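Annotators were shown the component list below and the corresponding predicted structure, then asked to write short factual statements about the assembly.
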Amino acid sequence: MARRRGRRPGTTDTRDAILAAAGEAFAHKGYDRATIRAIAAAAAVDPALVYHHFGSKEQLILAVMNVPVDLDVMTQEILNAPRAEVGAHLVRVILDICDSPAGTAVLAQLRSGMNNEWNAQQPGEFIAIPLIRRVMAGLEVGREQTSMRAGMVIAEIMGLVVIRYILKLEPSASAAPDKLIAAIGPTLHHYLTDDLPGVFEPAGSGRRLPPG
Amino acid sequence: MARRRGRRPGTTDTRDAILAAAGEAFAHKGYDRATIRAIAAAAAVDPALVYHHFGSKEQLILAVMNVPVDLDVMTQEILNAPRAEVGAHLVRVILDICDSPAGTAVLAQLRSGMNNEWNAQQPGEFIAIPLIRRVMAGLEVGREQTSMRAGMVIAEIMGLVVIRYILKLEPSASAAPDKLIAAIGPTLHHYLTDDLPGVFEPAGSGRRLPPG
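Structure shown to annotators:
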């Protein structure tokens, strides 16, 4: 009777069934609304097995996209760098992913214009953004500033990827990674750690005049 | 007999015929390969009339896209700003275009994912890039550094537009323009005018060791 409850844990079949169910769920419901519980049900496995095989929903979608990167490992690599070089390391990790075989395949698909919106948003939403959020969480940045700073970092990285890999504008498209890292790294460092006048109010200045 | 040579200059008909021919030509041949001469022939008008109505190929494609911006006027506005504020002015002009009715329409089209690649590249290629190139030409930047610096500026602006208007990521999507200008303006100023170590070699350092 136990077999009727689903596939056995640990087999390739289980992994493939979860991947297939997740691919369906993400495509039809979107990332946010596709739950691990529903994916597990569709694959006829226990939700715990989804975590066993993929660790997290974020890692599951990377597996669906066939991008073999581990966000936790990458985050740790970036945070292990000297503080002044975190921005540069972040650019390097992103360029490495884009230049990897999996990254090249994803970007070629995007460039072909054959993608629906869900696909087009994948690399930014499911690699760059979670990675940057993890890096920010590891830095000592005021929590209330995290999402604005992350947005600025994401914009800069997204723009670099678009002009280098999607639009293929020169000289960025053919520039050596080191040149781009030298160009963009200090900007990311600035966004991650500097005071940003006009963006954040100085502490204690949040007083508002009463209306009228 | 004169009527057989084509439509009369200066009429709405002429303008519309040129726009229709240009739309066809850009969609089928791409911007670079669609010549003013061929567009004029398809519209049965003299090429001089195309220039009379639209000024330049760059302005013609903006008219095809129905984005009523004048690149020369915008460039002059930006260059009239104090040097230290050129970056901030550039961000403001781009945000103004994106928030205008025409910009909103173009961005909504992009967001819908219903566009082919040619359409998706339009706003970046035919507004942001020509504008930035004109601004760079008006600044006293070494000619050999112009395209790398422009690429960095373009990446930053493109990323901002993507996260604010296409992906609609918060808090950038709802941030007041002044906050974004305070955030991004200094970066553009840095890319436009500062020394960028590691990106450009110091003058005179171009010596190469002989091979072997």
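Statements collected:
1. Chain B touches chain A through 44 residues (CB under 8 Å).
2. Residues 117-138 of chain B form the longest helix (22 residues).
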